[in-house]
């Protein structure tokens, strides 16, 4: 074994506390140089730490007999080295058709499903993967080309929770050349995958054409990339915690997890780094799984709406999610605005509106009008029954209490700063002739077009989980 590489990997494992004595370690082995070197290294470490070591290999069936031969090669090497082996063959093509995904995604899903099953079967502590420093460098270069989210520069994680244990990557501290030298010095056999040399794949192109240019300027670029990844991970963990706290303080979540809202002044009072992360936390909460066509353009449009001086605006996101800005409030909501409605309401009855609100009508001899914003009363002689509960119509006007003449419903909504997305479904109460009695929660008519009364009063009550 090359002393320098052994010292590097040993130090890395100890500093990250990857392996404890007497633990059970599964190793994902494809048959290539990286995974075979990792398996050999752990074999040498087995006695020192009293490890239980099991090699896992998956035949994806993507290269015909070559894929199966890779698995058989790993199996025979494990027999020679005295290492327990578990392998499987998976049907990537069928999985693609069933789930509508690409080849690489299908292969990865099937591979990790097998790994997780084996973690449970062996009650393993860790699954060791053979990603190395050049893989990390390639990943960061690729993300620099495609991604604008700073969180992406966390790169390949050193470790993460997996099943009931953890995934670890002990070789992230070394470059590919060191692994090849290790295999040569220790006579570690391996198989080459010819697809790794095909520049049609973006990662291969970066490996073959771009990474060498970086290494010309900085031979330790793989180490530089790993340090950048670790520091980005540490910074992102802190900012993520702060953004979560911001969301808890500022964002209001609607019933059913399909709607959120916040006040722009509150949201904008936080640093832009937290605003940006809060935006993505909101999307993660609403979508559960972000759609593929969600991009940095949506983020730019979001901040444009947030920072411009405008009363109302709307932004469409994928899969029916919409953002509404109404004066000082931003609301994210799935689905389009509700359909117009019309209901008749007689004394003793109640109706449930499409948004879950309820309006009821009763009579009494009490001639004291309610001053509540959610109740309206008038003498029964002053209206034509049954009442009508409906949404607004073009040209709607009403004569308001304490005001001469009439006013457009549209202007009342504007004066009261009612969100634009709520105006089309806002309940309006009229009598049977169409005269508007009550714009619920906002304005009431005088209710006394004549001096003749019966002494019997109508009482209309509105209630909902949310205040209009």
What is the makeup of the main sheet? 6 strands, mixed
| Structural class computed from helices and strand pairing | alpha+beta
CATH superfamily of the largest domain: HUPs
Q: What count of domains describes the coordinates?
A: 3
Figure out the total of helices: 14
Strand-residue fraction? 15-25%
Ranges where pLDDT stays below 50 over 5 or more residues in a row are none
- Order of adjacent strands in the largest pleated sheet: 3-2-1-4-6-5
Helix content: 40-55%
Task: Give the CA-CA distance, first to last residue.
Answer: 74 Å
- Calculate Rg over CA atoms: 33 Å
Give a brief description.
With 468 residues, the protein is α+β, with helices and mostly antiparallel strands. Helices cover 41% and strands 21% of the residues.
């Amino acid at each position: 074994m090359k002393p320098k590489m052994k010292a590097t990997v040993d130090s890395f494992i100890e500093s990250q506390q990857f392996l404890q004595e007497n633990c059970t370690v599964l190793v994902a082995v494809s048959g290539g140089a990286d995974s075979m070197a990792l398996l050999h290294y752990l074999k040498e470490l087995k006695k020192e730490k009293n490890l239980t070591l099991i090699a896992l290999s998956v035949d994806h069936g993507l290269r015909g007999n070559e894929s199966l031969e890779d698995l058989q090669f790993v199996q025979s090497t494990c027999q020679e080295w005295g290492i327990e082996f578990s392998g499987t063959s998976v049907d990537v093509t069928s999985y693609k058709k069933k789930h509508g995904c690409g080849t690489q995604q299908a292969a990865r899903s099937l591979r990790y499903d097998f790994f997780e099953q084996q973690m449970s079967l062996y009650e393993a502590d860790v699954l060791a993967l053979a990603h190395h420093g050049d893989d990390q460098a390639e990943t960061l270069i690729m993300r620099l080309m495609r991604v604008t989210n700073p969180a992406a520069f966390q790169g390949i994680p050193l470790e993460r929770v997996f099943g009931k244990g953890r995934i670890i990557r002990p070789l992230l501290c070394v470059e590919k050349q060191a692994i090849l030298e290790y295999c040569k010095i220790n006579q570690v056999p391996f198989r080459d995958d010819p697809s790794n040399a095909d520049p049609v794949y973006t990662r291969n192109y970066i490996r073959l054409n771009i990474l060498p240019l970086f290494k010309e300027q900085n031979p330790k670029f793989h180490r530089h990339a790993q340090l950048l990844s670790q520091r980005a991970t540490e910074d992102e963990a802190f900012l993520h915690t702060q953004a979560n706290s911001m969301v808890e303080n500022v964002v209001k979540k609607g019933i059913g997890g399909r709607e959120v809202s916040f006040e722009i002044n509150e949201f904008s009072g936080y640093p832009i780094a937290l605003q940006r992360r809060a935006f993505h936390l909101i999307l993660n909460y609403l979508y559960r799984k972000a759609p593929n066509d969600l991009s940095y353009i949506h983020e730019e449009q979001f901040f444009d709406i947030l920072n411009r001086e405008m009363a109302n605006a709307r932004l469409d996101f994928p899969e029916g999610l919409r953002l509404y800005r109404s004066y000082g409030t931003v609301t994210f909501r799935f689905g389009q605005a509700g359909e117009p409605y019309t209901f008749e309401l007689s004394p003793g009855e109640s109706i449930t509106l499409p948004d879950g609100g309820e309006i009821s009508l009763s009579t009494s001899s009490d001639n004291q009008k309610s001053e509540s914003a959610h109740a309206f009363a008038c003498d029964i002689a002053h209206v034509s029954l049954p009442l009508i509960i409906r949404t607004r119509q073009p040209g709607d006007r009403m004569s308001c209490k304490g005001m001469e003449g009439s006013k457009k419903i549209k202007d009342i909504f504007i004066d009261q700063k009612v969100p634009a997305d709520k105006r089309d479904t806002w309940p309006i109460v009229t009598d049977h002739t169409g005269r508007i009695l009550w714009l619920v929660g906002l304005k009431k008519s005088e209710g006394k077009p004549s001096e003749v009364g019966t002494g019997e009063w109508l009482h209309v009550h509105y209630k909902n989980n949310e205040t209009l």
